[in-house]
Amino acid sequence: MMTPPSQTESPLSMSPPSPESKTAPFMVDFPSPPPAPDASSQETIVVPPQGVNDPSLNPSPLEPIMPEPGTTVIPPTEPPPVVKGNPWPKRILVIGLLLFFLGGAVFAGRMIMTKVSTPKEVVVNYWGLWEQEGVIKPIIAEFESQNSTIKVQYSRQSPKQYRARLQTAIDAGNGPDIFRFHATWVPMLKNQLAAVPEDVMTPTTFASTYYPVATNDLVAGSTIYGIPLMIEGLGLFYNEDLFAAAGIATPPTTWEELLAMVPKIARPEGNGFSTAAIALGTTSNIENFSDILALMFMQNGANLGSLSGSEAEETLSFYKKFATATDPVYTWNDTMDNSMYAFASGKVAMIFAPSWRAFDIVEMAKQMNSNLRFKIAAVPQLPGNTVTWASYWAEGVSEKSTNKKAAWKFLQFLTSKETMIKLYNSEGNIRLFGEPYARVDMANLITDAPYVGPYIKQANDSKSFPLASRTWDEGLNDKMMKYLENAVNALGQGSSPQTELETLQKGFSQILSQYGLVTTAASTTQ
Q1: N or C: fewer beta carbons within 10 Å in the chain?
Q2: Do 303 and 257 belong to one domain?
Q3: Does residue 513 have a pLDDT over 60?
């Protein structure tokens, strides 16, 4: 749009008038045409002034300035007329564009906020050992339904070389977030186990929730390294029919009672026995021999961290009695079948074993001795000193896990009373029974259970030591067991208990030192 000319200046004025041009102050010289034959015929164009206030040019407002003869008058230029149209279409277009961009900005903002505010899904990897996927998956599904942003992937591992494989994976940064480990492995896994946060469980709460042996094994000062799902140890399996045949009504509660039963049950045959009273005295054909001997040492007051003195010597000699041909309680030797097989087939009246061995015995009995009837009792004791055995597994979280918060949340769910009951029942649906509860406040639920009840009744007095069999750790337990095996076998070759204890102690000290354990720490487990 053009701007109307001002009242004080002509739109064609190029410069202020000069004194020499008073006669035609607004004259404009256009480009000259080619020279004419007569210069006097040149025409001058004069633009009339518009509102000029110079008195010399317009002496009187009532007397107009007349053009000189021979000039052409051009009327003053007026601004073009303003076309007044409808402004609303343009306004609507502008408003529409503004709304479009505003809507786009709001949409983009919501998308960004959604991405920021929506929790990211976390995947927790869980390595287990004994539970089939069919048992654990319903538990995981229930947890995931309550925690939509956490997914738990369960992987059942082979127990063979498990400890070494676990540590290698964690150290390489591709191990599990949660994993099962044996309670005696804490010294070996101290760099891989994350401490339980206080908002998950404090040492005080742990001590009141679980049996004393768990506090001793899994808690160091104010640091908790794992949470157990079960408790396990040794029980006395006995054959009801062989007891009845020998006139024995109840299982022994003391070692004295057990010794008295041996001659009543044992039936020698050739180099062995058609019926043995109990599987004791050897190593190669007795399952859990190291657990049994460790229990005997502790019951007799021997310090496993510093094996010396009469208590330790007496224990070795006592164990060997049952496999010494000249002893009154001779009832077992190296020619006998594996203790589990012998019990399932009815060839031995008593064995010491953990509760889960009942699964193996029942399955073997189906093939060779379908009439087998057996029960489980607490282990016999010495007068005035009640000690039982513990060998169990716990759940831990990897120190290198990037999902610790989610992992501990799942373990809180997994170790709750409600979940443990469901897990126990689910396990019982596919086998004889579930794992004995680790929680003290759940003991009354299974105290009278035929298979696990005896283990729960003696759990409060149980103690542990790294002589636990069948952990396949290729480390602390296996190395200690090898020294103990050599000592027992040497006794069978005529060596003295005192000589073997000296060798045994040197081996034990070397291994305990290798894993950062000291004698005083070992003695506290007894």
Answers
A1: N
A2: yes
A3: yes
Q: Look at residues 312, 316, 354, 358 and name the one whose alpha carbon lies nearest to residue 471.
A: 354
Q: Which of 439, 462, 485 is the last residue of a domain?
A: 462
40-91 confidence digits (pLDDT tens):
444 444 444 444 444 444 444 444 555 555 555 555 555 555 555 566 667 7
Mind listing the pLDDT tens digit for each residue in 297-319? 999 999 999 898 999 999 999 99
Residue 3 has pLDDT above 80, yes or no: no
Q: Give 213-227 pLDDT, tens digit per residue.
A: 999 999 999 999 999
Instruction: Judge contact between 267 and 273, C-beta under 8 A.
Output: yes
Do 184 and 477 meet the contact criterion of CB atoms below 8 Å apart? yes
Q: Provide the terminal-to-terminal Cα distance of the chain, rounded to the nearest Å.
A: 105
- Tell whether 357 and 293 lie within a shared domain: yes
Q: Give the list of residues 6+ apart from residue 286 with CB closer than 8 angstroms, or none.
A: 279, 280, 292, 332, 339
Instruction: Check whether residue 448 and residue 492 sit in a common domain.
Output: no
Whether residues 167 and 279 share a domain: the answer is no
User: Structural domain of residue 250, as residue ranges?
Assistant: 235-389+466-523
User: What confidence score (pLDDT) does residue 21 get?
Assistant: 41
131, 424 contact by CB (below 8 A): no
**In 346-459, beta strands by DSSP E:** 348-353, 374-377, 388-389, 393-397
Q: Which two tokens stand for residue 493?
A: 């070759």
Collapse the DSSP code of 291 into the 3-class scheme (helix H, G, I; strand E, B; otherwise coil) and give the result. helix
Q: Is residue 99 part of a domain?
A: no
Residues 346, 441 share a domain: no
CATH number, domain at 323? 3.40.190.10
Total domain count, the chain = 2
The residues with which 351 forms a beta bridge, in sequence order, are 237
Residue 36 lies in a domain: no
pLDDT of residue 120: 84
Looking at the structure, tell me whether residues 220 and 150 fall in a common domain.
Answer: yes
Among 383, 380, 361, 381, residue whose Cα is nearest residue 372: 361
DSSP codes, 28-54: --PPPPSPPS-GGG--EEEPPPSS---
Residue 362 or 63, more confident: 362
Question: Looking at the domain assignment, is residue 96 inside a domain?
Answer: no
Last residue of a domain, one of 447, 462, 477: 462
Q: What is the pTM of this model?
A: 0.77
Q: How many residues does the chain have?
A: 526
Same domain? For 225 and 250 the reply is no
Helices of type H across 369-416 = 404-414
